[in-house]
Amino acid sequence: MNYHRGVHTPNVSPLERQLNLVIALLNTPGYLTADEIRQTVAGYSADNGEAGRQMFERDKQALKDLGIPISVKSTDGKGTIPGYRIRKEDYQLAPLSFTSAERTVINLAMQLYTGDGYGELQSGFDKLQHDHDDTHPGLINFASAATEQELTQLTVLSEAAAQQRTVTFHYHTAQALISEEREVEPWGVVADNGHWYCVGFDRKRRAVRVFRLSRLSGDVTVTEAPAQEERPHISVREILRQQLSSVRRYVSARVEVDADASEELVLAADQVTTAPHNRERRHLLFDAVSYQWLRDAVLADAPHATVLEPSELVQDVRTCLERVVQRYQAREATE
């Protein structure tokens, strides 16, 4: 592309001319005056007078409307002749950063998307994986824990929730292995402690319910009936935790892990930071996580994971590990 030759190019489109202007202003060591721009940037002409000045003003405004920061500074020391430049530090985007939840959503979206342009999306997704800061967990395949049927159910339920439609499906509880049909107004689908849940209003029971996707059997059917129950003014995740609070205990916790810690444990954290005393280790911060799940996950990951707080969980894990050692020593003594 001819963008900085000082040659009049009448066939250059406005978009290409504006791109030429951006490149010129980015690469100039100093500030360019309007006359210098018309003389050196392809698409302008040094001899087209007022029309050329108006063209430059329109292009300058178009770039500003796009959010491109053009720096202006006097070039003659008197403030009468302005110069223009785009400083690279103002133009470049800040490094991308994602929370573990955001990385999960990106990964899940890549698994569910099958439309046009998938190749380009996959290329960008791979680049995010490659370029991600080593101090944070990578884009881990959290959704791979779900079966293909569960991913299909998740998609149907999410779309029904967005469209405020009613669905039917067969479901069994942890106590009853025989499935029965449920008619539900879904409010959303959310992941919690390694499982996917549908949160919604059960029409037959006239109550809010949560449904673990792994306990659904068969397809989810979207009906013609619109949703009628008013949705609560709290998040779906908060509803889920309220519903499970009777059978689960939730705590806030901090866990330190090394590079060999399981992906499941790292991905479940609400925040991941580098350990202050060792950049090879990370601190996982959990907000309202299942006490039993975290204890079991840390025990399964020993010695690669260590609970730092709360103190009760620290002692619980230590006691469990001591029992394991005692049993091992007792068995060794009898052999």
Domain count: 4
Number of strands: 12
Along the chain, the helix and strand elements come as HEHHEEHHHHEEEEEHEHEEHEH
The largest pleated sheet is described as:
5 strands, antiparallel
The main sheet orders its strands as 7-6-5-4-8
Architecture overview:
InterPro entries: CBASS_pafABC_assoc_protein, WCX_dom, WYL_dom. Pfam families: WCX, WYL. By secondary structure, the chain is an alpha+beta fold. It folds into four domains: 14-91, Arc Repressor Mutant, subunit A (Orthogonal Bundle), CATH 1.10.10; 100-130, no CATH class; 148-245; 250-333, Alpha-Beta Plaits (2-Layer Sandwich), CATH 3.30.70. The protein has helices at residues 14-27, 34-40, 49-65, 88-91, 100-112, 118-131, 148-163, 236-244, 263-268, 291-301, 311-334; strands at 32-33, 71-74, 82-85, 165-171, 180-192, 195-202, 207-212, 216-226, 250-257, 271-275, 278-290, 305-309. A hairpin with a 7-residue loop joins strand 2 (71-74) and strand 3 (82-85). Helix 1 packs across helix 3 (49-65) and helix 10 packs across helix 11. The longest helix has 24 residues, at 311-334. It starts with 13 loop residues before the first helix and ends with a helix.
